[in-house]
Amino acid sequence: MVIEAKKGMYIIVVGGGKVGFHLAKELVEANHEVLVIEQDSVKAKEIADELGDIVLDGDGCEATILEKAGTARADMLLAVTGDDEDNLVSCQVAKQRFNVARTVARINDPKNEQFFRKLEVDITVSATSAIMAHIEQELPTHHLSVLVKLRGSGLELVEVRIPDDSRVVNQPIRNIQLPYQSMVVLVVGEDGQPKVPSAETVIHAGDEVVAVTLHESEEQLRDALLSPATARSF
Amino acid sequence: MKIVVMGCGRVGSALASELSAEGNEVLVLDNDPTAFRFLPEDFRGTTHIGNGMDIDVLGKIHLGDADAFVSTTRGDNRNVMAAQIAKHVFGVKIVATRVFDPLREEMYRNMGLRTINPTRVQAKRLKRVIEAPSDEAANELVTEFMRQEGL
User: Fold this and answer.
1) Rounded Cα gap, residues B44 and B139, in angstroms
2) What is the C-alpha separation between A68 and A113, in angstroms, rounded?
3) Which of B54, B88, B110 shows the shortest C-beta gap to A109?
4) 3-state SS, one letter per residue, for chain B
5) ipTM of the complex
6) Residues of A in contact with B54 (CB under 8 A)
7) In chain A, what are the domains?
8) How many Cα neighbours within 13 Å face the side chain of A173?
9) The Cα angle at residue A61 between residues A60 and A65, in degrees rounded to 5
10) Which of A9, A32, A214, B12 is the most buried (most CB within 10 A)?
11) Nearest CA-CA distance, residue B1 and chain A, Å
């Protein structure tokens, strides 16, 4: 993994488990100044043996430890322990007390993503969500997959392949009742040609449709684009 | 009032039973079913086994309808995370939590949670008990502390 940033940032990694260790290793190799905070002293020593004197043995949620770590001059704090509550608090202390510009939290329960971002967490990374997204793209029965979430607005970009029996087949876009704040932004025909649709663009079976929608409207959008024609009589 | 208490330890159970006895509609949440043994026999509130940091669990108990939420587990981070979910996800008006670390306690108080830090008060009181001239004087002090709390 390559973190696209200026060389030589000071990055604090809270949590020296597998994720924290490998992250720290990559960051060191990318010439960043790295400090790992790990409260299990055995683990802390193992990391120090491997990566050198870049480990602080302590609780990365405690202001005194973060103070010792020089958090005030850190460009970024990455909280990657296995517990969501510890990652949240670590990011909040870093923001509130030390004004760290960017905080990143690893998230285990994907339901916490939105809520964390409302608070002091700038970026959330959820392995569960990432793996689910891959599975969803593979599953033919699960037609709607989220491509990317647009930060802040609550909007997301979703992709859907129009099934043969969908009620939108052979309908122009103006006939499709899309949910609030949802919009079809791209249609890729079976020939692989992408086109920016107008209200008159006719949807065909097998089209790949990229739409923007609110997370809350996902279900409705799925319904609007994927339900079989028999579900509602026109 | 409809009140949800997270954590049925000694403090949580005592709080829940007092609130319930005063006529409030109380639900106690704990992920350890054996924790409810701390509740008195005549407890009239509800108990629910589940993780108070899980948004689905809190939705299932209709936290959004509660007037107050209080977290009293042993973990500071668990307490403040659950409290913030109650406040920011479910919009509960009164959200209180116990935080043992004084620095974190102050920070979350400034961020709009009703926090209480038992550590400093207890340290002060323990010091006064040690400094009492005799065992009797120490006992009197403790009785005085209890009286101040209406116990």
Assistant:
1) 34
2) 29
3) B54
4) CEEEEECCCHHHHHHHHHHHHCCCEEEEEECCHHHHHHCCCCCCCEEEECCCCCHHHHHHCCHHHCCEEEECCCCHHHHHHHHHHHHHHCCCCEEEEECCCHHHHHHHHHCCCEEECHHHHHHHHHHHHHHCCCHHHHHHHHHHHHHHCCC
5) 0.88
6) 109, 111
7) 10-126 (3.40.50.720), 139-231 (3.30.70.1450)
8) 17
9) 55
10) B12
11) 26
Residue indicated by tokens 């079809």: A184
CA B131 to chain centre: 30
Across chain A, where does the E strand assignment appear?
A: 10-14, 33-38, 55-57, 76-79, 102-107, 123-126, 144-149, 155-161, 183-188, 194-195, 208-214
Q: What is the value of pTM for the model shown?
A: 0.73
Give which of B104, B108, B110 to mutate to test A binding, by max A Cβ within 10 Å: B104
Note the pLDDT tens digit of each residue in A140-188. Answer: 555 678 888 887 788 899 998 888 888 899 999 999 989 988 999 999 9
Residues B18-53 have pLDDT tens digits of 999 999 999 999 999 999 999 999 999 999 999 999
Task: Identify the pLDDT of residue B15.
Answer: 96
Domain B2-116 has CATH 3.40.50.720: yes
- The domains of chain B are located at 2-116, 118-151
**Interchain contact, A115 vs B89, CB within 8 Å:** yes
